[in-house]
Amino acid sequence: MATETDPDIRPAIDTGLVRRLVDAQFPQWSGLPLTRLEPGGSDHVIHRLGTELSVRLPRRADVAGQAAKEYAWLPGLAPLLPLAVPEPVAVGEPGCGYPWPWAVTRWLDGEVATVEALGDSHEAADALAGFLTALREATPEGEHEDPRTDAFADRDAATRAAIDAWAGDFDGRAMTDLWDAALAAPAWPGPPVLVHGDFHTGNLLTVDGRLSAVIDFGGLALGDPADDLMVAFTLLSAGPRAAFRAALGVDDATWLRGRGWALATGLNAHAAYARTHPHVAAQTSRQIRAALAG
Question: Is 3 among the domain residues?
């Protein structure tokens, strides 16, 4: 029998379900209109509730803890960060046949960042570097349990299989050389720092052509700062990418681990979506080629 932690659960989520959950658990918002956002995210189904709120329901068990994590962390982090982040308002409980906690947050205006708009922007590069610097400086002091571990060795077999599968589309030898080098790179020598964990173009918002907000903190954890370098390869062209690295003061080993992380995640997403989602195929192709270029 399936349980709420079963990775194969994919609950049907429609506006009627969201309406029932909101009305039952937060009757103060029962009179507000509810509009589903399309296209939705890969991790959550999102509705706008009235003009000032949004409702996010996880699609899968592996992201079901995001509502509680953001509620615990983001109010304290928000004043320390130079870009806006989601403002949690409430965490809903499982109900009406839906198995996981869900989130109500303040609505954030903005449009998803695009390579076309920001890829050549040194201003965006500086803003991204400033955000990551502030996030690292916000890392709480002392010992912490369960730091994030993104060991390359754990991804080795899957990444090499993806390299073999897509060697005809990209440079198989170059991918293998980069992956071998990332595996051999020295580990982060310092204590783990706060990382966003999924810092890419789709989780950045813009207003009037400028970066305004960072969203989707489900991967927030203590870990290797190389994880968050992925944005350099998903968004920025060569010049701004170099400026981003310089502004962060990234050493060679950390940059190499970041390139390896971008290659592995890009190949993983490409394998999952390239044949059915041309837009994702274009994004991940760019990410893979940028990681190879350095």
Answer: no
